[in-house]
Amino acid sequence: MTDYDIIIVGAGPAGSTVARSAAENGLNVLLLEKRQEIGVPVRCAEGVGKEKFNEIFKDIDKKWISAEVDGAKVYSPDKKTEIVLSGDKAGNEAGYVLNRKIFDKDLVKLATLAGSDLMVKTTATGLKKNKDQGTIELTMQNSDEIFTAETKILIGADGIESKIGNWAGMNTTLNLNELESCVQYQMTNINFDERFCHFYLSYETIPGGYLWIFPKGKNVANIGLGVLSSLSKKSPKEYLDNFVNNNFPDGKIIEINAGGVPVGYPLKSAVNDNVMLVGDAARHVDPITGGGILNAMIGGLFATNIAIESINKKDYSVKTLKKYDELWKNDFGKTLHRNKKVQEKLLTTDDKTLNSIFHSMENYNITEANTKKLLYEIIKRNPKLLWDLKGLFV
Amino acid sequence: MERKININRYKCACCGACIAVCNFNANEIINTFLEIKDKNCTLCFSCIKACPFRAIELEE
Ligand SMILES: Cc1cc2nc3c(=O)[nH]c(=O)nc-3n(C[C@H](O)[C@H](O)[C@H](O)COP(=O)(O)OP(=O)(O)OC[C@H]3O[C@@H](n4cnc5c(N)ncnc54)[C@H](O)[C@@H]3O)c2cc1C
Ligand code: SF4
Ligand code: SF4
Q1: What CATH number labels B4-59?
Q2: Superfamily designation of domain A4-45+100-175+265-343
């Protein structure tokens, strides 16, 4: 007899979503987390779109949210032009800045209340196919104790540092031009427009990435940046210190975070026999915004549905699990693909050109705007520059 | 004298970026400890460039 129907490696938003919904559907579930405390340290700027977030959760706990924003402001490299994306009634670009220390932990609590087993300070360290049973034997380490468990389905929700994919024969290693190397400070004592999330672009001072300021409450914000590892000449920390010293000389740093964000094309397939990858492990992150929280949870629900189907059929083969690929590809997969194309173009756009693109948008009235509409409009107004992207938006 | 990469434990934040870019299964974070498997490491230096804190150093 197998020990579990599903073992999930990693208790971020992706893993806990799978654990909760699988347990709610009566499956025998184990969720593993190598950290000793869920959600800590934070590796995230914590911004999510309001509309999608509200769709996923019927009961939003106020404690999950640090701040609500009306929209986003995006600044040109010379800072002379800003594009304002304000949330309309439908809440297109309006968003929440979460408190992931509480949010991630609560999602795990909900999973355990639904009946999922949980082990913290427990790292998955290897896997073996059990050919006779058609199952997987996972090796784990809790503190210094090593043990194994057998499962029908293994979910790799192990984030940026995912090993499950590579162990299961899918290559998920990122090239240096597919990784944003990020540093973030949570700062107090700073003055800025707290109604918005702020984004700064510059090829010269933030190569291949952007800098963000996300409000976290009165006079508090997450200020961070990501630079593309293949392009950065200095460490991301140096780029960030430079910005902070110039703009918030009186600010106090109350938290330091670091992390990597995958910004390549999405995987061709996120499944193999017995195994599905979700969230950052599947590289389900928007290559322009770096946002991955929502996709992690949406993809998690897709993966759970297919896991349930395969367990009912007693067929855990790649052929059955492939349906998960169809689901995510037809949902957020399309946006990932399109935005990767746009991001590649951005990577070859110098600051002078970026300034002129921003300038072209000066009198654009963006109520009811979303990123897709904005990109469409930018391309319309800069047809020569961005001709090769035209096809992506018709 | 053998060259190898070395983690500056005072700088490392356990963020995982270096794991994502290693094509040789030469690094891994167990619980909160970043391990380097020297025998797998090809000294390609991808991890050095990916690290947000420049916590990975070459020991010569
Ligand atoms: C600096 C930064 C800013 C970001 N800002 C945003 C933002 O504003 N909005 C947004 O939507 N997204 C943002 N992201 C991306 C977002 O953080 C991720 O997309 C999201 O956390 C993905 O969730 P996940 O569950 O897939 O992975 P994670 O949240 O990374 O969870 C993976 C978990 O797996 C555990 N784990 C890994 N390996 C093992 C193992 N072998 N055994 C046991 N456990 C293991 C890890 O410890 C971790 O807890 C940002 C990322 C970074 C780095
Ligand atoms: S130097 Fe290359 S092979 Fe060695 S650990 Fe770093 S990324 Fe892996
Ligand atoms: S990338 Fe740097 S900070 Fe992050 S885990 Fe690796 S060595 Fe540590």
Answers
A1: 3.30.70.20
A2: FAD/NAD(P)-binding domain (3.50.50.60)
Task: In whole angstroms, give the CA distance from residue A282 to residue A168.
Answer: 13
**Whole-angstrom Cα distance, residue A80 to residue A4?**
58
Amino acid at A145: E
CA-nearest residue for atom 20, ligand 1, is A293
φ, ψ for residue A274, nearest 5 deg: 70, -10
Q: How far is the CA of B19 from the centre of ligand 3 (A)?
A: 8
The residues near A235 (Cβ < 8 Å, ≥ 6 apart) are A183, B51, B52, B53, B54
pLDDT at A160: 98
- What are the pLDDT digits (tens) for A113-139? 999 999 999 999 999 999 888 999 999
Q: What is the pLDDT of residue A394?
A: 56
Given a contact cutoff of 8 angstroms between Cβ atoms, the answer to whether B28 and A163 are in contact is: yes
pTM above 0.90, yes or no: yes
Instruction: Using most ligand atoms within 8 A of CB, pick from A174, A280, A336, A371 the residue to mutate for ligand 1.
Output: A280
pLDDT of residue B4 exceeding 70: yes
Q: Which ipTM was obtained for this model?
A: 0.96
Q: Which residue numbers of A have CB closer than 8 Å to B's CBs?
A: 34-36, 41, 43, 121-123, 125, 141, 143, 159-163, 166, 173-176, 179, 181-183, 229-230, 232, 235-237, 256-260, 262
